[in-house]
């Protein structure tokens, strides 16, 4: 194991648990002076001491530190890149702040976001109503953004719902891949719910529940796996209502719309955990080298559902590959994004056009792979494939998305999709970024915007291949 200096994070976790240095040292079987040296990064952690700390604090400190630090670095780069200064803050300085003073880093990010919101409010107040060419109205954080952050801060893993789903599957003897009849029976026996088809052809409907008459109507066009998912979602709303209410009692979900969306997200999470129960699904994923198509056949669900579930497997002591999951349309809009790890999705500007999720649209239905390197030097394996959703007959509009699933390159050897790739030479990876405005690559011919916080060389006597050369 390489030398690990995690002192500030251990000190922070110890203080959050209300332990003194002497109390933690006693639990670890160490002297107080030795622990003091560890917390001040005067001594590295040995593998033995790290294992004791992980057990005592109830968290995998090294993994937690790497992921949290990377997330904070990405947020700080975005916030400090918009500071208006002529000189960009070096990445090394930002990493040092995130490592040694993470609370100050989080405070700076929060201040930046409040400042941006205040500027929008002031601009709106300074503009007479209806004035042509005026500033846009004040933009409150959208409920969808609040819910994305809600899951992001949980690393896209909700242990309570996973455990409840496992208990249900075991107690009721529900068989993965064939749960539709069992879930319908449970809704009838526990809640007196009758399941029937919707009166229409279901082109605009998946599920509709009539609480007064206890009737659940499902679309006729759903597959068996999709019907099972909708049945499990409705069971979540009825069976898990107290738990979902407790989980959504969160100050970050500030309004009723955000809380309602979070309840839907949690009910869908429970449904996925029922159809793809944690331990059996993780065991199958490892045995099949994370082959998404084979997992879909085994559990009777589609490509997108498998990918989404793979991004949630972060239970302590039984972790899968930490994936990040996105769903993107042809215009580059991200309609779903979940991260079990540290990959940063930009909040400003678009995504990177060199990302293979866009290449997937040129190869419908085929999985494309990509080794991709971010500006901070970290390298990832991405896989992407298109999925289609259509309803009704001829001429009815449908939906096409690209689903992307990525992981840090150090996990790539566990995936069937890494076969044939040169994992030993990361320099072979495609250089991409989180988005043009926050990407500080010195030269990129595909750049759509100049990077925030960096001056651009403008010279009427000089033309370059790079559209926004740095000064």
From TrEMBL:
This protein's name: Short-chain fatty acyl-CoA regulator family protein
Pfam families reported for this sequence: HTH_3, Peptidase_M78, ScfRs
* Entries under PANTHER family matching the protein: HTH-TYPE TRANSCRIPTIONAL REGULATOR (PTHR46797), HTH-TYPE TRANSCRIPTIONAL REGULATOR SUTR (PTHR46797:SF23)
The cross-references to SMART domains, in alphabetical order and at most eight, read: HTH_XRE
The organism is Phaeospirillum tilakii
InterPro entries in alphabetical order: Cro/C1-type_HTH, HTH_RamB, IrrE_HExxH, Lambda_DNA-bd_dom_sf, ScfR_C, TransReg_Diox_bact_type
Q: Which PROSITE patterns match?
A: HTH_CROC1
Keyword DNA-binding listed: yes
């Amino acid at each position: 194991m390489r030398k690990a200096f995690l002192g500030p994070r251990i000190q922070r976790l110890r203080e959050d648990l209300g332990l003194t240095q002497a109390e933690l040292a006693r639990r670890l079987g160490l002297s107080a002076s030795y622990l003091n040296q560890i917390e001040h990064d005067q001594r590295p952690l040995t593998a033995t001491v790290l294992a004791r700390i992980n057990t005592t604090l109830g968290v995998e400190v090294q993994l937690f530190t790497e992921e949290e630090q990377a997330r904070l670095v990405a947020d700080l780069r975005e916030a400090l890149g918009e500071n208006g200064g002529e000189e960009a803050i070096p990445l090394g300085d930002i990493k040092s702040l995130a490592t040694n003073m993470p609370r100050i880093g989080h405070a700076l990010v929060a201040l930046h976001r409040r400042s941006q919101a205040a500027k929008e409010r002031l601009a709106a107040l300074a503009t007479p109503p209806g004035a042509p060419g005026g500033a846009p109205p004040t933009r409150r954080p959208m409920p969808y953004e609040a819910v994305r952050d809600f899951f992001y801060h949980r690393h896209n893993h909700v242990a309570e719902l996973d455990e409840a789903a496992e208990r249900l599957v075991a107690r009721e003897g529900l068989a993965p891949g064939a749960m539709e009849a069992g879930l319908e029976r449970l809704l009838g026996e526990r809640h007196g719910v009758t399941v029937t088809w919707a009166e229409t052809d279901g082109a605009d409907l998946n599920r509709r529940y009539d609480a007064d008459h206890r009737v659940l109507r499902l679309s006729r066009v759903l597959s068996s796996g999709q019907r099972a998912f909708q049945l499990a979602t409705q069971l979540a709303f009825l069976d898990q209502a107290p738990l979902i209410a407790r989980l959504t009692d969160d100050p970050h979900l500030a309004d009723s719309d955000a809380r309602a969306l979070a309840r839907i997200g949690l009910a869908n999470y429970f449904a996925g955990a029922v159809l793809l129960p944690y331990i059996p699904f993780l065991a199958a994923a490892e045995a099949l080298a994370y082959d998404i198509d084979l997992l879909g056949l085994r559990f009777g669900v589609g490509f997108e559902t498998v990918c989404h579930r793979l991004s949630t497997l972060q239970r302590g002591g039984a972790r899968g590959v930490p994936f990040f999951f996105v769903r993107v349309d042809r215009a580059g809009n991200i309609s779903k994004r979940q991260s079990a790890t540290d990959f940063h999705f930009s909040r400003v500007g678009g995504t990177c056009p060199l990302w293979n999720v866009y290449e997937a649209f040129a190869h419908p239905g085929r999985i494309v792979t990509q080794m991709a390197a971010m500006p901070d030097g970290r390298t990832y394996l991405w896989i992407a494939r298109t999925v289609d959703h259509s309803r009704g007959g001829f001429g009815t509009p449908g939906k096409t998305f690209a689903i992307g699933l990525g992981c840090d390159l150090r996990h790539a050897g566990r995936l069937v999709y890494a076969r044939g790739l040169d994992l030993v030479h990361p320099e072979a990876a495609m250089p991409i970024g989180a988005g043009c405005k926050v990407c500080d690559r010195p030269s990129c011919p595909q750049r759509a915007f100049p990077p925030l916080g960096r001056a651009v060389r403008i010279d009427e006597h000089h033309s370059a291949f790079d559209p926004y050369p740095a000064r």
